[in-house]
Amino acid sequence: MEGACPARPDQLVTCARLLEEARDHAATLRGGPELLAASQLPAAPDPITEQWLTRQWTGPERVLLAGTIDQTVVGVGAGHVTRRSAERVGVVDCCYVEAPARGVGVGTALAQALVGWFTAAACAAVDAPALPGDRETKQLFESQGLSARLLILRRRLP
Fold it and tell me: Does residue 11 sit within a domain?
């Protein structure tokens, strides 16, 4: 059965590997480098380690979730709380499921858990990025009640 819960210490090595996988995948997509530059993740090729996760994702304003199928970690969700104007806003930094485990509900479990955590953290809103052309991520977040509110278009100049 699929699920999502706060990552335990014995799951951090796998969560770190999945965050690196997500980062490396995003870097190959249109808009990915810009998204990663604004994210809380270290830039490649810097490793994401268990120690970095413990240091970076511990505290009341951050959440790290393990997405599981039958207790095996196959996905990771990460987010943090920030202030925008006078509001507390939850920001999804990562919601990633490894390819062989997609399509069975782990991503939905992670997205629901992230929204639930932000709600419990008294956030007024949740922001979650989806890259251009990434319909799966957009549909996942829309299924949780999120809607697109800003598109940024870019043209490179000579």
Answer: yes
